[in-house]
Amino acid sequence: MTGYLTGTRDDSGNYSLWIPDKEVQEIYEDDIIEWFKGSVKKDRDSADKFYNAAFDEDPVTMTRVLNRLLRKSVSVRDSFARKSIRENFYHGFILGLLTGYEGVDSNSENGDGYSDITITDDNRNTVIVFELKYSESGDSDSMKKSCMDALGQIESKHYDENLVLSGMYDKVVKYGLAFNMKRAMVMMNGAN
Question: How far apart are the two ends of the chain, measured CA to CA in Å?
Answer without folding.
Answer: 51
